[in-house]
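Reviewer 2 asked us to include a model.

Predict the structure of this chain.
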Amino acid sequence: MKFDKLTYRESVWPDLGKTITIDFAMNEIIVDSFVEGVKWCRIGSRERSTIEAKLNTSRPEEWAENYFEPVMDGMMWDLKLFEGNDLVKESGGCNGYPPNEQWQALCSLVTFCSIVTRRYGEAKGVAK
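Predicted model (structure tokens):
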């Protein structure tokens, strides 16, 4: 794995969104959803290999820094990749996205992490 940690954040007007943190060093996923609150779970070997495959398919290291389409009331997102505590790649957008296959792979990763934490996670006591 090229990265130790990633953070993905999306927000959709009016104030709906989520933040997903995948920490490979700590083997954990944290999903902070406006609707469901904060959930945390450990990453097992099966989940880790699925996460890595989806991340590798999305190829975020190839993404541009900014994607923007002038549309009202859309989605804003950003993705940050870390090695240790160092930010090594950041990409984000407002109604604009990387190439479709890569973006769909990331969306699949986000959905997978949400399902895993919903199914196996526990509430994490983090103040919003």
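The helical segments are 45-58, 100-120. The chain has a mean pLDDT of 89. We have added this to the supplementary material.
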